[in-house]
Amino acid sequence: MNLRKYRTYSTGKPEWDHAIFHLLEAAGLPAQREYFEILARVITLGHQGASAFDARLVNFMLADLCRAIAVFHPYRGIRKIAIFGSARLSPDSPVGQAARKFASMMAESGFMVLTGGGSGIMEAAQAGAGREKSFGLNILLPFEQRPNEVIEGDPKLIHFRYFFLRKLFFLKESHAIALFPGGFGTMDEGFEALTLMQTGKAAIEPLVFVDCPGGIFWKNFERYLRENLLAHDLISESDFSLFRFTESLEEARDEVLRFYDNFHSYRFLGARLIIRIRRPIPEEVLEEWNAQFRDILTRGRFELRKGPLPGEGQESELAHLYRLCFSFNRSSYGRLRQLIDRINEY
């Protein structure tokens, strides 16, 4: 038996490592290094004197993760948009009606809708998308909080114990985010998404702040960002490229759809960023970008090629795509969003 591949994740006891390997072999998972690491860490935790509370915490977190992964798995090939907004606003309010119409527009455009599964704007959005195209990511609270009637009882309603895991799945499973007016929860979700995109801890995706025509909620928020954060150099002007403000539902929908016009996805491969695109970029445009976006390159130039690179993997659904390859500085994510916008012009 060769356990060399697991040496980094060893429990420190060869007999325990072999027992884990045999268990995975019996379960049909002998080559899955990640599963070996999970089991090894659990055993190590138990022998490090973890309390019953600590063990229960890990168990509950793992239960939430496994349950959510299982629910989303059948829908992994479908794009989804997370819609946030106040639970205190009536679904029949102007904001609620706007959220319902917007969710309907996104469902018609092929997206499924994720909400917190509660009342108010969440209920309005799920009514607009319809039960079949809705997910509810509900949070278990000490006080009574029933899921809205659109998603209640649906297999796509997930109850989370912890806010941080709930937020993880909103970002992990969404391909776009829309924020309607809301309170602490809405602001929390918005800032979380912006922080993770700004720092590269989450993939860039379209994020749009949507208000009713004539509304000032997000106008005041934008003014706050510019007068209190940007004016004091706490954020950069390019960070404003990570999101959009609009009072038009059509503009909000088009912002999401336009993001995926030519751009498909990206991933890091060693020191290089690989952006997958549907259509090639003209050579003369690449030359312009080598000058215009020189600030985000650590070395070299933008290069275009067809098909996957060695080490990228052989996912058949991605094989036909072009790749824009370059050494990204991993800090200028607002500028990266500007580059994606340029890609979608071709």
CATH topology of the largest domain: Rossmann fold
Distance between the termini: 53 Å
Number of domains: 3
Round the Cα radius of gyration to an integer and report it.
23 Å
Unreliable runs: none
Biggest sheet architecture? 7 strands, parallel
Overall mean confidence score, pLDDT: 93
Strand content: 15-25%
> Number of helical runs?
11
The CATH first-level class of the largest domain comes to Alpha Beta
Please tally the β strands and state the result.
Answer: 11
Shape: globular
InterPro entries: LOG_fam (IPR031100), LOG_family_nucleotidases (IPR052341)
GO molecular function, one term: AMP nucleosidase activity
EC number: 3.2.2.4
Protein name: AMP nucleosidase
In words, what does this structure look like?
With 346 residues, this protein is α/β, with parallel strands linked by helices. The protein has 3 domains: 70 residues, no CATH class; 183 residues, Rossmann fold (3-Layer(aba) Sandwich); 81 residues, no CATH class. Helix content is 42%, strand content 17%. The chain contains 11 helices and 11 strands. The strands form 2 sheets. Strands 4-3-2-1-5-6-7 form a 7-stranded parallel sheet, sandwiched between helices. A 4-stranded antiparallel sheet has the order 8-9-11-10, with helices on one face. 32% of the residues are buried.
